[in-house]
Amino acid sequence: MAVACHAALTKAHLSDDCQPDAATMEKSVDGNLCRCTGYRPILDACKSFAKGVDMEDLGVRDAAAMSHGPDAPTDLPDDITMPAWLKDHVKLKAACGDAVHVTGSGQAWAAPRSLGQLLEALGQNRHGGRERSGRPLSIRIVAGNTGAGVYKDWPSGHEGTIIDVTKVAELRVLETTQDGGLLVGAAITQEELIDCLLDSSSSSSSSSSSSSSAKSGRRSGADSSRGAAARRAPGSCPNGQPQLPSCRNGQPERPLPCSSSGSGSVASAVRAAATVGGNLVLTRDRGLESDLATLLMAAGAEVQTMKPGGSARWRPVKDFLAAGDFGGPEVVVAVRFPPVRPGDVFWSYKVAQRHWNAHAFVNVAVQLAIDAGNTSADPTTATSATVRSARVVFGYPALEKGGNAPRWRVGRSPAIERILTGAAVSIATIAAALRAVHDDVAPGDVRDAAFLLSTAEGLLFEALVSTLKPALVATLKPVGLAAGKPLPEYILETPSLHDIPVSAGRQFLPDFSRPGSAAGLPLMKERALLQASGEAKYTGDMPEQRESLFAAFVGSTEALAVVKGVDASAALALPGVVAYIGAEDVPGVNKAATGDAELLFATDKVEWVGQPIGLVVAESRAVAERAAALVKVDYSCELGPPVVTIEDARREGAFHDSLPVAGPNSNLPDGQHSALPAVESSPLQIRGAKWRIPNQTHFYMEPQTAIVSWDEGGVIQVQAATQSTDHVQWAVAQALGLPHNRVNVACRRAGGGFGGKFSRACPVAAAAAVATHKLRRQVGHFKDNFYTKENFVTRGLRDSHIAGAAIVAAHKLRRQVRLGVNRNQDFRMNNGRAAVEVEYDIGFDDSGKILALEMQAYLLGGAQLSGSFVDLYQLKGNIDQAYAFPAFHFDLHLCRANLPPHTAVRGPGEIQATMLAEHVIEHVAARLGLDPVAVRERNFLQLPEVANAAVPKGVKTALGQEVKKDAEYDRRCKEVAEFNRQHKWVKRGISMTHCRFRSMVPPRPAVVSIFADGSVMVTTAGAELGQGMFTKVTQVAIHELSKALPEEQRPLPVECVAVNDNASFWLPNTGGTAGSTAAEGSCEAVRLACKQLVEETLKPQALKMGNGLTWRAMIASLQPKTPFPPTAKLTAYALWDGTQINDDGTGALLQKSALSVFFRVQGKKLQYSTFGAACTEVEVNVLTGERHVIRADVLHDAGHSISPAVDMGQVEGAFVFGLGMMLQESVTYSETGQPTYDSTWDYKIPSAACIPRQLNISLLEASHSPQTMPNDSPNKHGMMGSKSVGEPPLLLSTSALTAFSAAIAAAATDLSNDSDITKPSTILDTGAKSGTGTDTGAKIGTGADSSAKSGNGKDDVGSARSGSSADVSVREAAVQRVCAPVTVRAVRAAVGSLHLPGFLDQYA
Description:
Blueprint: H1 2-14, H2 22-27, H3 40-47, H4 84-91, E1 100-104, E2 107-111, H5 115-124, E3 138-142, H6 147-151, E4 159-164, E5 174-176, E6 182-185, H7 190-205, E7 215-217, H8 226-231, H9 257-265, H10 268-271, H11 276-286, H12 292-298, E8 302-306, E9 313-316, H13 317-322, E10 331-337, E11 344-352, E12 360-371, E13 386-398, E14 407-412, H14 414-420, H15 427-435, H16 437-440, H17 449-479, E15 504-508, H18 528-533, E16 549-555, E17 561-567, H19 569-572, E18 577-581, E19 605-606, E20 612-618, H20 621-630, E21 632-636, H21 646-652, E22 665-666, H22 676-680, E23 684-693, E24 705-710, E25 716-720, H23 725-736, E26 743-747, H24 762-778, H25 795-798, H26 804-812, E27 817-820, H27 823-829, E28 836-844, E29 850-861, H28 868-878, E30 888-896, H29 910-928, H30 932-939, H31 957-966, H32 969-982, E31 986-1000, E32 1004-1010, E33 1016-1020, H33 1029-1041, E34 1057-1059, E35 1062-1063, H34 1078-1105, H35 1111-1117, E36 1131-1136, H36 1154-1158, E37 1167-1181, E38 1187-1196, H37 1204-1223, E39 1254-1259, H38 1294-1312, H39 1355-1358, H40 1365-1377, H41 1384-1391, ...
Parallel strand pairs: 2-4, 3-4, 7-11, 15-39, 16-27, 25-26, 29-30, 33-34, 38-39
Antiparallel strand pairs: 1-2, 5-6, 6-10, 8-9, 8-10, 11-12, 12-13, 13-14, 16-20, 17-19, 17-21, 18-20, 22-30, 23-28, 24-25, 24-27, 26-35, 28-29, 31-37, 32-33, 32-36, 37-38
Helix pairs in contact: 7-9, 14-15, 15-17, 23-24, 28-29, 29-30, 29-40, 33-34, 38-40
Cofactor: Mo-molybdopterin; [2Fe-2S] cluster; FAD
Binding site for Mo-molybdopterin: 723, 754, 906, 1075
Binding site for FAD: 291, 350
């Protein structure tokens, strides 16, 4: 993030624009991802460098408190400029030089400086040589080499010659041609091309010749000149480096086609490296989902290529992309744009999963030449404008005849072009062109064919309306309409979702400070400066030992098969490979984790794609991964087809049995096993309804990583990225057959975990440990008391030709094994939260009060139980959420599928429970035609709190009312309704939801030591995962230790306390960091240890010292003059036992419960509920399915916060994490069990553009009156009044899902009134009328049509009714159809297939 921000500033300084605007700085991180923060603070930091930004509008609060001390710098310099010498260095980095040619390791690297040298290198290396295996070596031309990020093919090991073309002068040309066109060298980056066009557009748009310039429309219908860019492009490129002029004020006055598609397609960092030529070659050879190729083809560009010994050849882009084998190496030299003529207009756009840094599902580019008509006021002489020529190009995936997989197709649209060419600009012309989309766009038999066609139709409609609107409006006004009804203005108002507004937000932190204490202050996160500067070390950053070894998993490629044999010979023959490790090499128990049936390495069969079969160890990570791909596994698929879906599992009866948390959740009287009788006796009923919830994976930034080495005495040292050093220690000890006291596991920090580094870190560390053990044992013919490390195994040793010298060398060299799982393998090995399908029946009355609820839920588990039971257990226990259901029965079934083991993901079970509870509320509200907020309020749990398993049940209705007021919900509801009335193609929705999160805090230990100089070292149980664990621990330690000082000297400085790394030899038996309560337990254990030191040592010494007391003096008085142990106690160990904490700090020993026994808590366990509320407003594009979140207001109850700034970050991060699940994240598999999302190319977590454009976060003030709030706020039985915060706000993201449901219902309702706009297969034909029970299974019981009821005389609810009976039917169908994630595909499917031509016919 810091580098991306710096790059944007550098670019601005080089163009003499010392301060870019806020939009530019925010977009600088368009290619960066963050899973923790929610982006807001990062974006604020970027915008702090921008011009015109008021620092008070950013999220910077209390600069003094956010520092680590009074002397820490907090202000930016007044003048931030780039030194002149650095500018010159950057500008001269491409200076001319001689061609470079380097050889080594069987490869050659060439860096020619001219086209002649390049062609010569190609000619000399056309046969590349051969490997020892006989496989021919290839030539690879590289520039930005960004394709390797998509195809994961670098380095492949088969490149005989690598040719770098970035310094070839002829490929770096960017100049105007004599006829006014533009010549672009193939090695010009996409960023350079975009900047050139934008700058030239800015210059031309202010000239007086705008009437003859080509125009480019973006989603707003704005115009600009691509042709002007060509005419005004730079004329010379000395040294192959284009001298690009700067945009005035850093912002072009008019946008351009390249920016409308190209700039949003990939990240800034990729655009700065990816070249024009490389993009075209990857599109032709690999089927890259290119936006640039679509633009170039529509612009009429040509591609120049050359072969060694041949002449230059120009071809249209279409012919270049269609070309096959050239019979030898050929290089792309340049691309040539034709000049643009008067009347030319250009429009382009793409539809993708995510606004920034995502490949297109469909893209389009349209260039039209328009002859203006006569707009005379006299109808007899007025004439329409006409389309002189047209080029319409679509890009989309298509399945060719006989093909196995879709491939990206870029092609012209002859049928559409024929209709447009020579036609008058009219509604009829647009309608005819839309009808031809199905003739020109032919995706074939692909899964998303209907989506691709409907989206292409919507995009073309936007393109034609945007480009033809000026001529169309000018024609319609004087001429009038020959037939049809008047054309509403909003028909021609196409959506504008491309240029999203700059994000903004408000953060409210109440005053949680305590007198003389560091607790409650919004301190900067511990070691935040190290993270921002890149100095913080994660597991993979730990120093390599001399000649370290690297490992890579060999994963199964089949989901269910018998393993007949494994052949690693090809891998072992690869230079640099040391060994292959399999199940037979495990000295202990071949299990992935303690107490789990999952094998560390598969033996006789595999049960999911990606299941580890073995491990390859090599001298580099690249070699290890290449070798792993060479291992051949002989499979036999005699076990039948794999179980992949819940439907498969139910059909085959595949379920996990003997679950530790089996049985339904019910509040029915004993002996009643179903709520159906209560449902059937209710006045109104919804029967047999179904709904589903998707899977979501962790996507931590740091991959699963472990480093293992042997230490003296047979001790094994493990550095692991884990949430639990205990679990890793147990797994490694079990795999190696060692006692725990010979396995030390350490973790300084982990780059995110979210549950994925709890049990799933175990097989990674255990596998690396087995490899280390085997390599040590291969030279282990020495006595144990001889100091040895893992060995260096030469190729001769692999071939069993062991020489004495090799044994001596192997014995001397100390080798560690490092295993970092790449992202693709991580996706395949590990699964996230369980997908859920639910069947339910609801009984309710006409006021919206739910009387009975019967649910059957099916969770999609993996092949092994692993952590799936956590989802099941938490879903089971949280289904009622913040609502009072008088009679409910909830039964769950965990399916066993041939998928990777599932494990907990942030808020496991709780988020699914929240989504289900809110969906039930939404369904009832839709059936009755009521505002869902009124139905929620009707069903809230009420004060006083109701005891249930000692969990407070008081619902914070005040939270909802506060959010409702702050978010101006009532006013904005009216505004949303008015917006939807005025807009046809864009609809908005607004919704409020609430959450209740049950927390239980298990026991934790801690050690606190005071050194001779007064500094303090804290060793805590909790792991630092980026959540601010160590910051809270530090603040609590200072709070408690400061009690030994006079009030005027409190608190101790923050720098006085440091927090130790987690390590099982330093502090064993710590459990794991999970459940949002590890910080509370760790803080309480630290507080108790500090309290021991204060009460037993420090306070007595302070009384002796009297007036001369200072912290340093007091500690010095307890130390001897020489470095011998002090006589006083300066180290304390404490174990907080997990019981409630009374006001005097003692635990209350009361009754046991099931959970207290599970966690071995002897007294009354500390458990409580955390509440929150959120209001979210969203927008959807009916034509393309695009959607975004406009605004979110979130209020969270953190109790009496210990570290408000940390808690604020957790609330923001959790909410945005949940938005990923609501908007776009879902892990899916093919029928054969192959993951369809196993990389960042397809699995898209939220980017900075996905967060709400206005994000307002507040923490609840802890001083609310007990009369209006439950008596557990602040948490009087918790740790210093605080509450959990890591997961609860995640549940509030459900408000986005319900808001999208409202927006889609508004769209469906509006479209239902246009009988010609929808085809029969739409949402409107689900038969979901009141009482019909068709399709959705909805059925009215004994009551009459519920939409006509008065609400039992309750006017406050009855007044919330909206719409006719038909509208209620459409809304209910929308609620049933809209499930997470609300992708662009889902929006288009829920709205239905638009028949735009038929709709336009009525106005033609």
